[in-house]
Amino acid sequence: MTEEYSFLPRTKETPEGADFCLRLDNDCMEPFLMRGELLYIDRHGAPEELQPGLFWYGGRVLCRQWCEDSAGTLHLLCANPKRESENLSLSKSEKAACLCLGRVVLKKRLPIPIYRT
Questions:
Q1: Which of 27, 76, 98, 101 could form a disulfide with 57 if both were Cys (CB 3.0 to 4.6 A apart)?
Q2: Between β-strands 88-90 and 74-77, what pairing exists: parallel, antiparallel or unpaired?
Q3: Is residue 104 helix, strand or coil?
Protein backbone atom coordinates (compact mmCIF):
# COMPACT_ATOMS: atom_id res chain seq x y z
CA MET A 1 0.00 0.00 0.00
CA THR A 2 1.39 3.38 -0.93
CA GLU A 3 0.33 6.66 0.52
CA GLU A 4 0.31 9.80 -1.55
CA TYR A 5 1.02 13.10 0.10
CA SER A 6 2.67 16.38 -0.61
CA PHE A 7 4.20 19.00 1.61
CA LEU A 8 2.61 22.42 1.78
CA PRO A 9 4.76 25.39 2.71
CA ARG A 10 3.91 27.34 5.83
CA THR A 11 2.26 30.62 4.95
CA LYS A 12 0.91 33.52 6.95
CA GLU A 13 -2.48 31.71 6.88
CA THR A 14 -1.04 28.66 8.66
CA PRO A 15 -2.42 28.77 12.22
CA GLU A 16 -0.02 28.84 15.15
CA GLY A 17 0.47 25.34 16.54
CA ALA A 18 -0.47 23.48 13.35
CA ASP A 19 1.77 20.47 12.69
CA PHE A 20 0.10 19.20 9.52
CA CYS A 21 -2.99 19.66 7.43
CA LEU A 22 -5.34 17.51 5.41
CA ARG A 23 -8.28 18.13 3.17
CA LEU A 24 -11.69 17.17 4.55
CA ASP A 25 -13.26 14.72 2.10
CA ASN A 26 -16.83 14.50 3.43
CA ASP A 27 -19.63 16.64 4.82
CA CYS A 28 -19.80 15.20 8.36
CA MET A 29 -18.72 18.48 9.95
CA GLU A 30 -20.76 20.89 7.80
CA PRO A 31 -21.76 23.68 8.07
CA PHE A 32 -18.75 24.49 10.29
CA LEU A 33 -16.02 22.62 8.42
CA MET A 34 -16.73 22.23 4.73
CA ARG A 35 -15.94 19.36 2.36
CA GLY A 36 -12.69 20.22 0.58
CA GLU A 37 -11.51 22.58 3.33
CA LEU A 38 -7.97 22.28 4.65
CA LEU A 39 -7.96 21.25 8.29
CA TYR A 40 -4.93 22.21 10.33
CA ILE A 41 -4.02 19.70 13.03
CA ASP A 42 -2.06 20.16 16.24
CA ARG A 43 -0.83 16.62 16.85
CA HIS A 44 0.42 17.46 20.35
CA GLY A 45 -2.88 18.88 21.57
CA ALA A 46 -5.94 16.94 22.61
CA PRO A 47 -9.22 18.52 21.55
CA GLU A 48 -11.40 19.93 24.30
CA GLU A 49 -14.62 18.03 24.89
CA LEU A 50 -17.21 18.69 22.14
CA GLN A 51 -14.52 20.22 19.92
CA PRO A 52 -13.25 18.56 16.75
CA GLY A 53 -10.32 16.24 16.64
CA LEU A 54 -8.84 13.80 14.19
CA PHE A 55 -9.28 10.16 15.21
CA TRP A 56 -8.07 6.83 13.84
CA TYR A 57 -10.64 4.06 14.35
CA GLY A 58 -11.50 0.94 12.40
CA GLY A 59 -8.90 1.67 9.72
CA ARG A 60 -10.35 5.11 9.01
CA VAL A 61 -9.37 8.66 9.84
CA LEU A 62 -12.35 10.57 11.20
CA CYS A 63 -12.86 14.24 11.96
CA ARG A 64 -15.44 14.37 14.78
CA GLN A 65 -16.48 16.25 17.86
CA TRP A 66 -16.11 14.06 20.90
CA CYS A 67 -17.46 13.59 24.37
CA GLU A 68 -17.42 10.92 27.02
CA ASP A 69 -20.43 10.03 29.16
CA SER A 70 -20.52 9.00 32.82
CA ALA A 71 -20.36 5.30 31.85
CA GLY A 72 -17.06 5.91 30.06
CA THR A 73 -18.50 5.57 26.57
CA LEU A 74 -16.66 7.68 24.00
CA HIS A 75 -18.94 9.42 21.49
CA LEU A 76 -17.51 10.65 18.16
CA LEU A 77 -20.10 13.03 16.76
CA CYS A 78 -20.78 14.53 13.34
CA ALA A 79 -21.67 18.23 13.42
CA ASN A 80 -23.90 17.73 10.39
CA PRO A 81 -27.37 16.55 11.53
CA LYS A 82 -27.79 14.77 8.19
CA ARG A 83 -24.89 12.49 9.21
CA GLU A 84 -26.15 11.57 12.68
CA SER A 85 -26.21 7.92 11.58
CA GLU A 86 -22.40 8.10 11.25
CA ASN A 87 -21.89 8.99 14.92
CA LEU A 88 -19.91 6.37 16.82
CA SER A 89 -20.32 5.30 20.43
CA LEU A 90 -17.37 3.27 21.71
CA SER A 91 -17.49 1.30 24.95
CA LYS A 92 -14.55 1.32 27.35
CA SER A 93 -13.08 -1.74 25.65
CA GLU A 94 -13.71 -0.42 22.11
CA LYS A 95 -12.24 3.00 22.77
CA ALA A 96 -8.85 1.41 23.42
CA ALA A 97 -8.72 0.89 19.64
CA CYS A 98 -9.38 4.59 18.96
CA LEU A 99 -6.37 6.86 18.62
CA CYS A 100 -6.60 10.65 18.78
CA LEU A 101 -4.28 12.07 16.11
CA GLY A 102 -4.68 15.64 17.36
CA ARG A 103 -7.00 18.58 17.62
CA VAL A 104 -8.35 20.60 14.73
CA VAL A 105 -6.96 24.13 15.06
CA LEU A 106 -9.89 26.56 14.90
CA LYS A 107 -10.39 30.25 15.54
CA LYS A 108 -13.65 29.64 17.42
CA ARG A 109 -15.43 26.86 19.29
CA LEU A 110 -17.99 24.74 17.50
CA PRO A 111 -21.48 24.48 19.00
CA ILE A 112 -22.77 21.24 20.48
CA PRO A 113 -24.33 19.12 17.70
CA ILE A 114 -28.13 19.29 17.57
CA TYR A 115 -30.05 16.47 15.94
CA ARG A 116 -33.75 16.66 15.12
CA THR A 117 -34.62 12.97 14.93
A1: 98
A2: antiparallel
A3: strand
